[in-house]
Amino acid sequence: MPRTKLLAIAGSPRRGVNTDLLLQELSRGAESEGAEVKTILLNELAIAPCRHCDCCLETGRCAIEDDMQWLHSELRGTDRLVLASPIFFMGVTAQTKAMIDRCQALWVLKYVLKLPIATNGGGERRGLFISVGGRRVANLFQPAIATVKSFFKTLDVTYAGALLFHGIEGKGAILEHPTALREAFLAGQRLAQD
Ligand SMILES: Cc1cc2nc3c(=O)[nH]c(=O)nc-3n(C[C@H](O)[C@H](O)[C@H](O)COP(=O)(O)O)c2cc1C
């Protein structure tokens, strides 16, 4: 049996703190169920913002030659997708949004050229969103969730839910949460199963 492939995308510019720790725990959970996890650190990649040049409209290929070219292949080939981004000004981070916008080329493949997006051999694709925000306000995560759902839909990834924690601001804040890391581990196990 081939192992389930999970792509874990870290969208925070900070290493080893809140969303990163949640993503790591989720990855550990998935690995404990046999998944093969590949982690992408967006802040360390060169991903320019979409220019809306419309070059992709003809071919479904983005004209900008940077790390997004191989990341498109990873996004298309994975069985499971986890996107982790803190809330910045009520949305995902700039690093995350740049990556999402650059998937316009995949949107063209799917909706204009009517070509298949997934290259993972036909298995169901599912994904989760991980986020934290410093404030405690109603609807803190709603704009980001809408963006992530739109991203997943373009990729033919079923949105299987989210791990969301508000009131998380300082670097060690998530470590003080009573259940967050355990919840992430269990979510990783569930995501890797069947
Ligand atoms: C530029 C910037 C914008 C932010 N905007 C928000 C916001 O709109 N709402 C909120 O609750 N927290 C906001 N925060 C706080 C972060 O979401 C919070 O510090 C979070 O813990 C960072 O996650 P990380 O440790 O995984 O990077 C912002 C932080 C920065 C640096």
Topology:
Blueprint: E1 5-10, H1 18-32, E2 36-41, H2 56-59, H3 68-77, E3 80-84, H4 94-101, H5 104-112, E4 126-133, H6 142-154, E5 158-166, H7 173-176, H8 180-192
Parallel strand pairs: 1-2, 1-3, 3-4, 4-5
The chain binds flavin mononucleotide.
Spell out the key features of this protein:
194 residues, alpha/beta, Rossmann fold, 5-stranded parallel β-sheet, 39% helix, binds flavin mononucleotide
Biggest β-sheet strands, sense, barrel: 5 strands, parallel
| CATH 2nd-level architecture | 3-Layer(aba) Sandwich
Parts with pLDDT < 50 across at least 5 consecutive residues: none
SSE succession: EHEHHEHHEHEHH
Report on this model:
There is one protein chain. The protein is α/β, with parallel strands linked by helices. It has one domain (5-192): Flavodoxin domain (Rossmann fold), CATH 3.40.50.360. It has helices at residues 18-32, 56-59, 68-77, 94-101, 104-112, 142-154, 173-176, 180-192; strands at residues 5-10, 36-41, 80-84, 126-133, 158-166. Strands 2-1-3-4-5 form a 5-stranded parallel sheet, with helices on both faces. Helix 1 (18-32) packs across helix 8. The radius of gyration is 16 Å and the shape is globular. It starts with a strand and ends with a helix. The model has no long low-confidence stretch (mean pLDDT 97). The chain binds flavin mononucleotide (FMN). Flavin mononucleotide is lined by residues 12, 14, 17-20, 86-90, 132-135, 140, 168-169.
